[in-house]
Amino acid sequence: MPMRHDFSENLMSLQSHILLEEAKHPSASGDFTWIISAISLAAKSIANHVRRARLSGAIGKFGETNVQGEEQQKLDVIANEAIMRCLGTRASVAVLASEEDDQPTILRRGNEGGKYCVLFDPLDGSSNLDTGVGVGTIFSILRNDPHIPDAQATVCQQGTQQVAAGYVLYGSSTIFVLTTGNGVALFELDPFIGSFLLVKDKVRIPAANKVYSVNEAYASTFPDGYQRYLSWAHANGYSSRYIGSMVADVHRTLLTGGVFMYPPTKKNPEGKLRYLYEASPMAFIMEQAGGLAYSGERRTLEHQPRQVHERVPVLLGSSGEVEKVREFLR
Ligand code: AHM
Ligand code: MG
Fold this sequence. Notes:
Layout: H1 14-23, H2 31-51, E1 61-65, E2 71-73, H3 74-88, E3 93-98, E4 105-106, E5 116-124, E6 135-143, H4 151-155, E7 164-170, E8 174-179, E9 184-190, E10 195-200, E11 211-213, H5 224-235, E12 239-240, H6 246-256, E13 259-262, H7 275-288, E14 292-295, E15 298-299, E16 314-317, H8 319-329
Parallel strand pairs: 3-5, 11-12, 11-13
Antiparallel strand pairs: 1-2, 3-4, 5-6, 6-7, 7-8, 8-9, 9-10, 13-16, 14-15, 14-16
Helix pairs in contact: 1-2, 2-3, 5-8
C-alpha cells in the first residue's frame, strides 16, 4: 500500500515564506529576501548572545550613553554591531538607522543603488537584561529615494510607507514576527536546526480582552483622559500586565488581546517610544493583525516624523480596547 503523507503540516522556514511572498509579485527582484535573511542571521546571533549573556560576561553597562541620553548596555552594542555587520554588506540596503546611532548610516548614494532603508532598535528593553526578562529587536523597512541627499530626510517617512516591519522576541523561545503588508506571520527559532519555522500565518489579534499594559506608576502625570480610562478600567474588571519591554508587552497583546500604551508623561511629554523603529513598525503589525494603533488623535501610521529619533505617544492593541481608551481621550 502506498504511504500517505500529510502535506498540510509541511515545515516552512522564514526564508521559504519570503520567497513565496515574493513570487506573488512578478516584478520582485529578490533584494527584499536578502534583507530579511540578513535580519534573521543577526537575530540568531543576538539570540545566542542574549542566552549566554551572564556566562560570557556581557551583562551590564557598556559605559557610554547613546544619543537619547540612555546608558548603553554591553548587549545593546553587541546587537547593534550584529545587525550592522549582517545588513551592511547587502547591496540592496542604502541607509541604516539605529536607535543606538546618532545619525543614519548611508551605505550607498544616488546611482550606487540600494533600494531600501532599514531602521531598527537592536535590543529594545535592554535595561531588563540583568534580570533575564524578555527583550527584542524591532525593525522597519522603507524604500530609499536616491534623489534625497540627506539621510535623515530619507528615513523620515510616514508609517504607511513601510514595505515591511517586524520584531524578534528573545524570550523563553526566540520568536520572529513579520509583516510585508499581507497579514502577520509568526516564526519560532528551532535552535537544533538553526532555522526560524512558521508557526502561524495570518495572525489575528482578538477584538477585545480586558487587559491594559502601561507603566501605571506614572499615571498621575498622564493626560486626564488616560487617568479617567484607568479609573473606568479599575471599576470594570480589567487586569493589568506590564513587563516594561515593549516587544514582550506587544507580543502578549498581539496574541491574547488588550491594549498597550505609553502615554505622554511629565518626564516624556511626547511619550517615550521612538516613532521610526518602535511605534511605527509595531503599528503596522497591529493593523495587519486586525488591531489599531494611535499616536494622539492620529493613526500612528499617518504620523509624519521630522527627526530620526522622534518620540510619539503609543496606544495600540485590540480594536475594541483601543477604541475604549480613545473614548476617554476625546
Ligand atoms: P529602550 O529602547 O531604551 O529599551 O526603551 C524602551 C523601553 C520599552 O521596551 C518599554 O516599553 C519602555 O521602555 C519601558 O519604559 P518605562 O520603564 O518607562 O515603563
Ligand atoms: Mg527601544
